[in-house]
What we know:
alpha+beta; D-Maltodextrin-Binding Protein, domain 2; 2 domains; five-stranded mixed sheet; 18 helices
Amino acid sequence: MxxxxxxxxxxxxxxxxxxxxxxxxxxxxxxAEKISLKVWDWGYAASDKTNAPAVAIKALHxxxxxxxxxxxxxxxxxxxxxxxxxxxxTAIAGGVGPDLFFENRYALQNAAGSGLYQPIxxxxxxxxxxxxxxxxxxxxxxxxxxxxxAIPHHTDARGLFWxxxxxxxxxxxPRKPPTTWDELRMYTQKMTRVKxxxxxxxLGFDPYFMPDALYLFGMGNNATFISADNTRALLTxxxxxxxxxxxxxxxxxxxxxxxxxxxxxxxxxxxxxxMAMWGNGNWAIAWxxxxxxxxxxxxxxxxxxxxxxxxxxxxxxxxxxxVGAKNPDAAMEFVKFMVSLEAQKYYGLKTTHxxxxxxxxxxxxxxxxxxxxxxxxxxxxxxxxxxxxxxxCPILWQAVFRATEDAINMKKSxxxxxxxxxxxxxxxxxxxxxxxxxx
Length: 439
C-alpha cells in the first residue's frame, strides 16, 4: 500500500517538475520574443553623435534593449513633419511606417488633426502612464479632441545668457544682468564695440536669436497671439506690435541686420566669446559646455517691460504613434521606459533638458549644473507658456517667423509685416478647420 503511494508521489513530482520546465521555457521564449521597433524622429537622429540629446537617447535605447532580449530598435532618418510630411505619409501608406515618431510637440495637434497619428489613451492607461505624474503644459499639448495622441518626453525654457568676462571688461557687474527692456537696450548699446572699419567687434545683443524670438518678447509684453479657441489670429494686437518694434529698434541700435550677419560670419556665435548677451534655451548649456568648455557665462530670465513679471515658453518632444503602427503594445512598453524615473533623470543630467516628470524635476535640482537649476526655477516660478495655437500652432509659428523676417530685415514696416502675416495665417487657419469638418 505504502509502496503505491510512494510511486504515486514520485510520478506527481515528475509531472510538476515537467510543468515547471515547460512554464519556464515559455517564459524564456516570451522574453526573447523577436520584436523590431521602428522609431523615427523629427530631427534627433539617435545615430548622430555630435550632440548631447542624440547620445543620451542612444544610450537609453541600449539600456532598454538590455532588458528586452530579442528586441531591436530600428532608428529612422529625421523627418520634419512641420514642413514636409511626405516621407512619413508615404511610409504609412505603404505599410512600412514607424511604430513611434519622436514629434516636436508644437506640430503634434496639427498632425493628429490631419490624421497622421492614432489615439493612445487606452494604451497609456494600461501601461500605467498617468497625466498626474507629468508637468501639465507638455501633457496638454499631447491631447487633441479629448484623446491622448502622444507621451511627452522632455520640455525646455528660454532665457538670457551673458558672458561674465565681457560684462567685467565693460565695467558691468555680471551678478546684475538686465531685467527690463530699457536695461537690455542700455546694456546692448554699452557693450557693443565697433571697429573703425564699421564692423562689429563685440556684439552686445542680437534680439533675433532664434526664428521665433518674437514669442518670447511678446509673452513678456503680455501679448496674445491667437484667440482662446484657436480660430482667430491676433498678430496685429498692440502688444505683439510693441514686441516686434522693440526687436527692430535693438537691431538698428547695433548697426542693422547686415552688420549683425557680417559679425557672425567673422566671429561666430556666443560660444566664440565675442557676444555680451544671447537669447537661447536651457539645452544650450550642454552645447556650450561641449563647444566652449572655458567660456564663462551665466543665465537668467529674458528682460520684460518695466512692471511686468518674467515670462518664458517651452516646447520639447513627445512619442506619438502613427496610424498603422505594427507593434503598438511593444511601442508603449518602450515609451513607458523612456519616461520612467530613471530614464528621465539620466536624460536630464546628460542633456540639460528639463524632465517632464514632476518628481524628477524636484530630485534633479540639487544635482544639475547651477545654471540648469536656474531654468528649472524659471519653469517653477515664472509665467510658463507653451506655443499658442493648438492644432493651428504650426500655421501661427510660420506667420510669426515671416513677420519677424520682414521687419528685422527692413523689407516691411512692423505694422505691415504683422498685418500681412496675420492675413495669410487667418486664411490658412480657416482652411484647416474647413478641411477638419470634412473628415
